[in-house]
Amino acid sequence: MSLRLSTGGRLIDRTTPVSFRFNGRHLKGVKGDTLASALLANDQMLMGRSFKYHRPRGVMAAGPEEPNALMGVGRGERFEPNQRATQQPLTGGLTAQSQNHWPSLEFDVGAINARLSRFLPAGFYYKTFLFPRPAWKHVFEPVIRQSAGLGRPPEGPDPDRYEHFNVNVDIAIVGGGIAGLQAALIAGRAGKTVLLMEQTAQWGGRAPVDGDLIDGGPAQAWIDAAVADLAAMENVQMRRETMGAGVYDHGYLLAHETLSHGVPEGPRQRLWRIRAGHIVTATGAIERPIPFAGNDVPGVMLASAVRDFVVNYGVAPGKRTVIATNNDDAYRTALALLYAGLSVPLIVDARPEVTGALPEQARARGVRIEAGTAIAKVKGGKRVEGVALCAQDGEGAVTEEVVCDAVAMSGGWSPVPHLWSHCGGKNTWDAAQAHFAPDPDRAPTGADGSAFVTAVGAAAGTLQGDVALGSATARIAALVDVSADAPAVEVAAEAPLAACWMMPARASYELRSKMFLDFQNDVKVSDVQLAAQEGFVSVEHTKRYTTLGMATDQGKLSNINGLAILAQELGEEIPNVGTTTFRPPYAPISMASIAGEARGEIFQPLRRTPMHDWHEAHGATWEPVGHWRRPYAFPRSGESVHDAVQREVKNTRQNVGLLDASTLGKIIVKGPDAARFMDMLYTNMMSTLKPGKCRYGLMCNENGFLVDDGVVARLDEDTFLCHTTTGGADRIHAHMEEWLQTEWWDWKVFTLNATEQFAQIAVVGPKARDLLHSLGGMDLSKDALPFMGWVDGTIAGIPARVFRISFSGELSFEVAVPANRGRALWDKLVEAGEALGVMPYGTEALHIMRAEKGFIMIGDETDGTVIPQDLGLDWAISKKKDDFIGKRGQQRSFLAADDRWRLVGLETLDGSVLPDGAYAVAEGTNANGQRNMQGRVTSSYHSPTLGRGIAMALVERGPERIGEVVNFAMTDGSEVPARICSPVFFDPNGEKQDV
Amino acid sequence: MLTLQCPYCGVQCDETELTAGGEAHLTRHGPGSDADTFEQYLFLRENPRGVHFERWRHAHGCGKWFHAARSTTTLRVFGTYKAQTTEPPQQIRDAISAVHPGWSWRNFGETA
Amino acid sequence: MTRYSAFAIAREAFRQHKGWDRAWENPEPRKSYDVIIVGGGGHGLATAYHLGKNHGITNVAVLEKGWLGGGNTGRNTTIIRSNYLQDPSAALYEKSRSLYETMSQDLNYNVMFSPRGVMMLAQTEHEVRGYKRTAHANALQGVTTEWINAKRVKELCPIMNIDGPRYPVLGALWQARAGTARHDAVAWGYARACSAMGMHIIQKCEVTGITSQDGRVTGVTTNRGDIGCKKMGIVVAGHSGALAEMAGFRLPIESVALQALVSEPIKPCMDVVVMANTVHGYMSQSDKGEMVIGGGTDGYNNYTQRGSFHHIEETVRALVETFPMISRLKMLRQWGGIVDVTGDRSPILSKTPLDGCFINCGWGTGGFKATPGSGWAMAELMAKGHSPLTDAFGLERFREGRFIDESVAAGVAH
Amino acid sequence: MFDVQTALDGASFDGAVRVAELTGQGMISLRGDLGDATLRDAVSALTGHDIPAPLHAAWSGEVTTVWMSPDELLILLPYADAAGAARDLQGKLAGTHALVHDMSDARSLFRLTGPALRDTLAKLTPADVSPAGLPVGMARRTRLAQVPGAFFLRDAQTADLVCFRSVARYVFDLLKTAADPAGRVGYFEGFPEP
Ligand SMILES: Cc1cc2nc3c(=O)[nH]c(=O)nc-3n(C[C@H](O)[C@H](O)[C@H](O)COP(=O)(O)OP(=O)(O)OC[C@H]3O[C@@H](n4cnc5c(N)ncnc54)[C@H](O)[C@@H]3O)c2cc1C
Ligand SMILES: NC(=O)c1ccc[n+]([C@@H]2O[C@H](COP(=O)([O-])OP(=O)(O)OC[C@H]3O[C@@H](n4cnc5c(N)ncnc54)[C@H](O)[C@@H]3O)[C@@H](O)[C@H]2O)c1
Ligand SMILES: Cc1cc2nc3c(=O)[nH]c(=O)nc-3n(C[C@H](O)[C@H](O)[C@H](O)COP(=O)(O)O)c2cc1C
Ligand SMILES: [Zn+2]
Known about the structure:
B: 112 residues, Folate-binding fold, two-stranded antiparallel ribbon, 2 helices, D: 194 residues, Gyrase A, domain 2, six-stranded antiparallel β-sheet, 22% helix, binds flavin-adenine dinucleotide, binds zinc ion, Sarcosine oxidase subunit delta (chain B), SoxD (chain B)
C-alpha cells in the first residue's frame, strides 16, 4: 500500500493539513503536496482508467510526462478536465474526479474492452464496421464516439481572466535545474538580459533529489546561492511555474505562466511571447519505462518518480518495492527507499553483470540484485501484488515469483528535446546512453542563418550532474564569449546501461500484448509489431496507425520505446527509423491563455462613431460592418424591425431623415500628380473634375473587378477627397499607398486617411434644406450649392463641409464636421428637426432607398467577380484614358464577352418579394447534370414607397430583355415568375434630388 | 514568427506589425500588353523552394513597402531593402551567393 | 489481399493476428509504366485508383517522396462538404462527397466517413445573404443544403453561444450529409486498393526531374533512378511549383503554410462541424474526442510546415468567443501544412504545356473533401483527354479571366 | 468650446498605472519631404523645436512633434490652436509638395503615468518596450492588441499613447485590464534605465 512516511518530504509542510475531495470522498493532504502525492498518501493507488481498454491505472510519473493520473479538477464554470495530478498543487477545498469510467472508478463497465482486447488490436476499426453501410452512421460510430474522449467537457463560460506579455531578451533559458541556473549565472554575469523560467514551483530540478554534491556541499545549498545571485542581477528575470511551450521561427519563444491554482484575483494564466536573441534549453531528461507484461498495473512507476515521491513529499508508493532496471541510476531509488525505512526485496537488472558504485552500495545494504533477469509479468489487477521473474535473454518462462506492492522501473533517460526540435533542431542517436540528444551542429537556425537554440545539461544528453554543469558552463560561456569554470560536482560514477526495449528479450505474443508502450492510448508492443507487419513501417505511419504518442502526454514516455520496437521489428537501426515530429506545446496549455485578454468587451475592437452612444440610447439594432457597428434600424418600443425600416423609408421620403455616415472612408489625395493618380485609380476621368464639384467614381482591381465606389470631391487644383465604402476605407487607403510606393514612386502625391477626423451626417428628404437652414450659418439653396457640389461653411456654429450628393434619390446633404463636434450637430439636428418630423434611419432603410433608385451597393451587386460594365456603369468608365487599374483585365475574353449577366430590375408578377440570392433558371441541364441558370437576384426588398417587392438582378444579356418574364427557383423547388424591368424604380428622371 | 527589419525606419518588426505582399519586382503590364505577358504579370508566380524576393509593408508602423530576400525553406533573411527599385541591391545578392552559390530568381542571380 | 471484416478480425484474434498481410506492397520501381502519378497524397492515390477502376489502366506507379499521405492529406482538419456556390465547384465537390458515402465499402477499408452535418454560421447580414444565395444555387445544382435559423443552430450544437454579445448567430447554411472522415485511412485505403490492382506504390522516391522529347513527357528522374512513362500526373499540392518548374512551365500558385491544432480529448459534446467565418475559426470533434480546429494561412511563401503563432491565437480567440466552454480546454498539439493557393483560390485540373503531362493542384486549404471526386475526374481527364468535371478548372482560365471564385459567398474554403 | 466632445470625455483610471484620456488635445498631420529646408523651417517655427530624429518625439512648451514615418510628422498642440496652425502651415508650404491636415478629432490621446508603465504596455504590444528598446523620447508606431497605436515616453514614468478615435473605448478598456493591480508582472520595474 502507498502511505505517508513519518519523516522526509523536502517540499511539504506537515504541520499544515489541506483537505480536498476525490470522487466525492473527503481526504487530507498537507501543504506542498501535489494532488498525486496526496492521493498516494491516502493509499489511493487507482487514479484513472485508460483510453481504449479502460484498464485501471495509477500514477506513473511525478511531472508533466504523467500519462495516467489525469483528473477533472474544480467545479462548475471552473471545472477543468485532464489535469495531471502530478502537476496540480493541493489547494484547500480542491475537488478532483477521476476520468473515463462508468459507473465508478472501481467498477467500470468499459473495462470489458480489456477483456476483448484481442479483438481490438491497432487499427481494428479500419477493418470492420463496414457492413451494412448505414450502420456506421447510425450504430457503430455513435457507439465508438460514446467511448471517445477522456475527461468530461468543461462547462464555461470561464469566469477567469488571462493575459499576454511580450518581452525581448538576449537570452531566454528554459529549465531551472542546475544546468539552467548555471547558464543564467554565466549569461547574467556577462551582462546579457536574461529570462530564466522553470515550469515547477522550485528551482534546482533533479539535483536535490538525486543527492548530487556541488562545490563540496549539498546541491540545495548551491542552488540557493545561485538563485540569490541571480535575483540580485538587474538584467536577469526569473519566473517559476512558467513553462517553455514552444519555439518558433526567428527566435520566438512561447511560455505559459500559471498565476493561480484556485480562484484568482488577477489573471489566472499569462502567455509570454518572447523574442529571444538566443534560447537555451535546460529542460532536463525524462526516464523511460520498460516494456514488460503488466507494466501498467497501478503501483508500477518510474524509478525516478518513486524517488521524487519519497524525497519530495514523504510518500511511499509501496512498502515493498521491486526495482526493474537496465542502468545504475535506478539504484538511487533503491537507496532512497532504504533510507526512508522501506523494503526493497529485489532489484531486477537486465544487464548480464551489475558492478557499478551505486549497485555496490545497495548490495552492501543487503539488497538482492538479480542480473540478466527480467520481469515476466506483474501480478495484480487494480494494484501490484507481486512480480514473476524470468531470464532477460529468454521467452518468459517464469523462474520465481516475488511478493511486492510496488514496482519501480527505469529503462534509462532521454533528454527532453522538444523545444530544441520544434523549429528544426536535429537529434543524433547516442548508442551508449540509448537516447536521442540534440546535435549542436544541426541546431535550428534563425533570421541570420545562425543557430539560435543551445541545449545544455541533461537536455543535451550530458545526464549526470557533473557533465550537466560542464556542458552548461562550456556552451554558455562560448555563446556569450566569456570564460567560466564549472563548479565541482561529486556524483557516483555510473556503469554503462544496456539498452532494454523489452523484458524479456524474446517475449511471447501473450506477454507482448500486455506490454504497454503508450499508457494513455493503450498501445502495446504487439500493436507496433502488427503495424510493422502490415507495412506501416514509417515511424509516422506507425504513430498514426497505432496512435502511439498521440495522447495528452505526446509520447513523453513512449516514443523512444515505441520506435525501438519498430526498429527491432524492421531489422533497422534506431536512427534510421527516426523520431516523429515534435510540435508545440511542450505540455498542453489552455485555449484561454492563447486567447489572452481578448474576451467580452475587448474580444475585438468595436469602432464607434461620435454618435454611437446616441444610437445605443435610442434603441438601434446593429449591423456589424468590419469592426464598426452601424444602426440597422431604430425600432420604437413595440415596433418590429421590419416596420421600423418601412417607417424610416417613408419618413425620409416624405419629411427628413438623418443617417450617421461617419463610417464612410475619407481619404485625401494631394500633390502635383494627384489628378494623374486619380485617373489611374478610378475608372472615371477624375482629372476633369472642377474644384467645388463632386463626382461618383468606381475603383477596380487589376483583374478588372469592381472593388469600391464613392463620391470624389475636388478640394482644389491638386487636392481630392475620396469617399469610400465603410469597409473600404483602410483597404483603399492601403491600395493607394501600395501603388504610389511600389509602382509610381516618382509621382508627387501624398495621401492621408482622414476618415476619423470627421463625423458625417446625411440629412435627407424634401425638408432637408429647411432643417439645415433652421440651424443657421450657411446658404444651402440650389443656387448656392447645386447638386453634386460641395461647400465649406459653418452650421450652428460648427465648421462644416456640406456635400450635395444623394444616395436615396431625395434632396440630400452630407454634412461633415470635426468628429468631436459630431454629436453636438446630431443633437441639434434632432432637436431642430422635431417640428419637421425628423427621424434617424439605419442601413436597411438606406439600402431600400438606394435600391428603389437602382443604385448599386458594393457587396450586394458586386461580389468580386463583377465588372462595372455588368452593372450598366459604362458611363463611369472613361473611354478617353489609355490606362487605369483594371482596364487591361477587363479586356480579357471572358470579361469582354457579350453574354455576361448584367444588371436589371425585377418585378414579380404578384408583387411579392423575391428571396435574396435566388437564381433564374434556364432550360435544361449542363454537362454535369446541374440545372442551367441565367441570372440571380442581387438585392431584394419590399419597397414601402411602391408598396410591392422590388429586386435588382444580374441576368444574362439582361438589359436587352426588358419586359421578358423569367422564372426564379425557390429552394423548395417551386418557381416564381418575374418581369425584367429597369433597375430604377423610383423617380427615374432624378427630379426629387435636384430641387 | 518572422522578424524583418524595416529599411525605412530601422525597426526590427514583429511579423504581426507587417503585412505580406507577395512576389517582388513584378513589372506592371497594362492595356496593349498581349495575353501571355498579362497572365505572366498578374498570375504566374515564382514559388521557389529557396531564395525568394518578396514584398512587405510595415503596416503597423511607418506604413512603407519594402522588399525582403528570404529563403522559403530555412526562413533565413538575406536582407531587406526599399521598394523603390527594380532590382535587389548587390550586397544582398552577394549575401545570397555566399550561402547559395549559383542561385537564380527570374532575371537575377548568378550566371554560374 | 485479405478482405477486411469483423469475421476476419475474429479469426485473427485467435492466431495472434499473424494472418494480416501488408496493406500495400513495397515493390522496386520498374523501368517504365503507362502512367506515373507523382505524389502519394489522397489525390494522387485516388487518381491512380480511378485510372484502374474506371478506365482499366493498371500499369501505374505512384511515386511519393516521403511517406504515403504525409502531405496535406495527413494534416488536414477533414471537413467534407459540397455546399459550394459556383457550378463547377459544386459539381466536383458533390461528386466527391457522394463517393465518400460508399468509399469504405468500395475500398473495403473503413475510412469512417461521418456525415454528421456541417454548418456555416452567418453572423452578419452580408453572410446571411451570401449563404442564402448558396442555398439557392445548391438547390439547382443537386446539392442538398438548407438555411437554418439560430434556434435550430443551437439545437444542433448546444455548446455554441449563439447570443455572442459581439456577433450573434443569425442562422447558418446547413448541409446534413456533409461531415468528416479519417484522413489517414483515406490514403491507406486507396493505397491498399491500388496495390491490389497491381499498381506500384513507391515511397521514399522523390521526383527530381521530368524528361521529355518533342514536347511530350517521357519519364522522370528520381532518387531511385530514372523511370519512364507515357503519361504523367503531377499531384503534389504544395510542391506543384517545384514540379512545374521541372516540367518547364510556371503556375499561378503560391505555397503557404496553413495551420491546425487539436485539443486534449474530452467526452463527446459536439456532433456537427461548425465553421464561423466572420470570426475566422472552425471546429469539429473527432471520434477520439479531440476538438479539431483549423487556423489561418500565412501571407508569405513557406515550405517549412510550420506557421506563425499569431494565426493560432486568432483562431482560438474566435472559437473561445463562439464556444465559451473551450476556454479551460487545453491545446494539445499544433502543426502546419503547405497549401498551394491559386489566383482565384480554386483548384487546377488540367492539361499542361507539356504533352502527356497533367496537373492536379491548387486545392489550397480545402482539397481533402475533394479527394475521391478529384481522383475520379483527373483519371477521366488523363484517360480520355477530357472530363466534364474538370473542364472549367483548366490552366487557361486565368488568362481568359474566367475565375471560379468561391470566396464571393463569404467563405473560406475548408 | 462646450460642444467639443472627445471620444471618452476625459475618462481616467487608476491602476498599476494611471490612464487618462487627454481632452483639449489638437493634432496636425504633415506629410512631406522632411529634409526640405522650407518644410523644416516652417515646422520649427510652429513647434518651437527641430524636427525630431527618426523614431523619436521632441517637445517644447505645449507642442510635441512625433516622427511617424520618413515623410510624416504628427504635431500635438492645444486643440484650440490646431485648425489655425494647420492653415498657417499650409500657407507657408504653399509652394512645397506637402499635405497638411488638422487631425485633432481623428485620434485619441492617453497619458499613462506610474512605475508599471512598461509592464502595462508589454501586455499589449509586440514592440520592445524595455528601457533599451524604448528609451525616453523614442516613439513607436505599432500594434496595441488588435489595433494600431503609437506611444512615446516623456519620462521614465510618463507615456503618451495615441490611437484612432473610433477605438478609444477599446484601447481604454485594454489599458484598464492591463493595468489591473492584481495582474502586476514586476518585470520591467527592476530593469535599469540606461
Ligand atoms: C492544416 C490544414 C487543414 C486543412 N483542412 C481541410 C479541411 O478541413 N477540408 C478539406 O477539404 N481540406 C483541408 N485541407 C486541404 C487538404 O488537406 C488538401 O487540399 C489535400 O489534402 C491535398 O491532397 P493532395 O493529395 O493533393 O496533396 P498532399 O496530401 O499534400 O500530397 C502531395 C504529395 O506529393 C508528395 N510530393 C511532393 N513533391 C514530390 C516529389 N518531387 N516527388 C514525389 N512526391 C512528391 C508529397 O510528399 C505529398 O505526399 C487542409 C490543409 C491543411 C494543411
Ligand atoms: N544519473 C543519471 O542517469 C541522470 C539522468 C537524468 C538526470 N540526472 C540529473 O539531472 C540533473 C541535470 O540537471 P539539469 O539542470 O540538466 O536537469 P534537471 O532535470 O535537473 O532540470 C531541468 C529543469 O527543467 C524544467 N523544465 C523541463 N522542461 C521545461 C519547460 N518546457 N519549461 C520550463 N521548465 C522546464 C524541469 O522542471 C526541471 O526543473 C542532475 O541533477 C543529474 O543528476 C541524472
Ligand atoms: C484530424 C486530425 C486529428 C489529430 N488528432 C491528434 C491527436 O489526437 N493527438 C495528436 O498527438 N495529434 C493529432 N493530430 C496531429 C498529428 O499528430 C500531426 O501533428 C499532424 O498529422 C501533422 O503531422 P506532423 O506534426 O508530424 O508534421 C491530428 C491531426 C489531424 C489532421
Ligand atoms: Zn518602418
